[in-house]
Write a structure and sequence with these properties.
nine-stranded parallel β-sheet; elongated; alpha/beta; 21 strands
């Protein structure tokens, strides 16, 4: 009997289908080209130098990251234009200065007075983005707070080592959407507010700044970006069940699956226990039939990856190491103790972060290990 790529799995392992990921990257690259916007992919999802190289195959040379530590990891591995899309933490000023001396570093001002405080501590030049809140309500200066925004721009432009790069937006409210109509409504509202804000800033004599927008739902669904100069999606490289639920993609677009050993089978209750729990998948949940549930999709191993099966095959719940799968009779009958089953993650960013690396699927065995930032740090 021909071996499957999963046959050498002994413990929970995150499998990565390169072809799906490359198709996802290619689709977003083509969208950016059609709209004449810069694609600055957010690398917080994969956190892997090896996966990052796949983006270079499409000519991309600018990235966003979620921490200075991540910026340092990718800078050491050849990336020279990096935006840290997280509010500045002044306690890390030494690392900010170190990175700014080695690459084109973009930093994020997300509140009043941050620019002035940063200007007093810089030793090297940085590009500064002002984070604008167009409705998400997490961080950033409200697009209605024109006076505060103008004050920050003036502080930036007055500082010798700071260059005002532009306005940066994350439409996180799109993650509460269901379906393309709701996603596009969020996107359009954000664009309209950005147009008004841009015009007001330009009326004050401030020109030549960019607008950067980043969230996977809007970047995946929208076909027009208006005043936007740059897009920063991240999750799109792998996608996940949250994005399927929102309407950003299909299950077939998900590029990662957690391979889990089967440790117990209870056909009388249509349940199976796997080694794969919260420490592997995170405890992010989706709703199933209106009820809170773990609801991760079950997939079956195939020669080239995995097969998506019935909606009635799902993860009922998880604890630290256990996963309880609910399966219909015809699927549970396919398994024996010691077999491997796959689970599509609710949140691929969190799952990847927990697993610290990937087994790259090939035609024979997932023998190619792609480490992530955390596993590389552990080696050091």
């Amino acid at each position: 009997m021909k071996r499957l790529p999963w046959d050498n799995i002994t413990k929970p392992s995150l499998l990565l289908n390169k072809q799906i990921a490359m198709d996802n990257i290619k689709s977003m690259v083509e969208k950016a080209l059609r709209n004449q916007v810069v694609l600055r992919p957010h690398f917080k999802t994969h956190q892997s130098v090896a996966v990052g190289e796949w983006f270079k195959d499409f000519g991309l040379d600018k990235i966003a990251v979620s921490s200075l530590e991540m910026a340092e990891y990718f800078q050491k591995n050849g990336w020279k234009d990096i935006t840290v899309a997280f509010p500045i933490n002044l306690r890390e000023i030494n690392l900010i200065n170190s990175l700014a001396s080695k690459c084109e570093l973009g930093v994020l001002v997300s509140g009043k007075g941050v620019s002035e405080a940063l200007s007093k501590k810089l030793a090297h030049s940085v590009h500064v983005w002002i984070e604008i809140d167009t409705g998400y309500g997490r961080s950033g200066i409200s697009d209605h707070a024109l006076a505060t925004i103008l004050d920050e721009i003036k502080q930036i432009e007055a500082a010798e080592l700071m260059q005002f790069k532009g306005l940066l937006v994350h439409n996180g409210q799109s993650y509460k959407c269901i379906g393309e109509t709701e996603i596009l409504a969020v996107h359009q509202q954000s664009l309209e507010r950005l147009v008004i804000l841009r015009d007001k800033i330009e009326a004050e004599g401030i020109k030549d700044f960019e607008i950067s927008l980043g969230d996977t739902p809007c970047c995946s669904v929208a076909e027009e970006f208006g005043v936007v100069d740059e897009i920063r999606p991240g999750n799109f490289v792998f996608y996940d069940l949250t994005q399927v639920n929102i309407g950003s993609c299909e299950k077939e677009d998900i590029a990662v699956a957690l391979a889990c050993p089967v440790v117990a089978i209870y056909p009388e209750r249509n349940e199976m226990i796997v080694h794969g729990g919260g420490v592997h998948l995170s405890k992010d949940i989706l709703k199933r039939d209106g009820q809170a549930a773990s609801y991760r999709a079950v997939v079956l191993p195939t020669q080239n990856g995995w097969e998506i099966v019935s909606e009635n095959a799902y993860v009922k719940s998880i604890s630290q190491e256990h996963g309880i799968l609910t399966l219909p009779d015809e699927i549970i009958a396919k398994f024996s103790i010691g077999d491997i089953v796959g689970i599509l993650p609710v949140h691929s960013c969190m799952t990847a972060d927990l697993m610290r690396g990937y087994h790259l699927l090939s035609d024979s065995t997932p023998s190619i290990w792609l480490p992530m930032m955390k596993s590389e740090a552990e080696k050091g």
